[in-house]
Design goal:
CATH class of the largest domain: Alpha Beta
Strand order of the largest sheet: 1-3-2
Keywords: Membrane, Transmembrane, Transmembrane helix
Radius of gyration: 26 Å
CATH topology of the largest domain: Alpha-Beta Plaits
Number of domains: 2
InterPro entries: GSP17M-like_dom (IPR025889)
Protein name: General stress protein 17M-like domain-containing protein
CATH architecture of the largest domain: 2-Layer Sandwich
Largest sheet: 3 strands, antiparallel
Strand content: 15-25%
Organism: Amycolatopsis cihanbeyliensis
Oligomer: single chain
């Protein structure tokens, strides 16, 4: 639940955040192999009423990972262009039909056909411009080899203790399971 107090606190906190890229400050209180692990640690701190506004998650040794999803062919390019053009054309046709009294479905049909034609043309021009140098579809992701949780010195010892207890509980659960 968001209250005026929590919203105001969030706004005053964001006013203190640096606007330019700045090196993080604080003492390391935990280190994790995945972002999910670091996020779980900070969530544990928050659940224990720890002042999480003193905490920063830092990805160490970042790398860009590009995962190839599929081969790009003329058929796939043209189908994608026709599909996106059709949606845009339908939207334009709907707007035209709203402002054209007694027009029936004609503005929708004109918008659809025009959108498909422009979608095909623009996607074909874009793909032809690459000249076969990028014949695949991919997704990029920024990941790190390690995620450190830093805390301002005034609360670092307490945070380290809470995270140590969390780690001990996790190890105990794994040994029992």
């Amino acid at each position: 639940m968001t209250t005026a107090f929590t919203t105001q606190t969030a706004f005053s906190r964001s006013a203190r955040l640096p606007r330019l890229p700045t090196m993080p400050t604080g003492w390391p209180i935990g280190s994790y192999d995945s972002y999910e692990g670091a996020q779980h640690a900070v969530d544990h701190l928050a659940d224990n009423s720890f002042p999480v506004e003193d905490v920063t998650i830092v990805g160490v040794q970042p790398m860009l990972v590009e995962r190839v999803a599929a081969r790009l062919t003329w058929g796939r390019v043209l189908a994608g262009g026709a599909g996106s053009g059709a949606w845009f054309g339908l939207f334009v046709g709907l707007l035209l039909s709203l402002f054209t009294p007694n027009a029936g479905l004609l503005p929708l049909l004109i918008g659809l056909l025009g959108g498909v034609a422009f979608g095909l043309a623009f996607s074909a021009m874009g793909y032809a411009a690459t000249r076969g140098k990028r014949d695949f579809v991919s997704q990029s992701q920024l990941v790190a080899t390690r995620y450190d949780v830093l805390c301002q010195p005034r609360n670092a010892e307490n945070g380290r203790d809470l995270l140590a207890r969390l780690a001990m509980r996790s190890q105990f659960a794994q040994s029992q399971g």
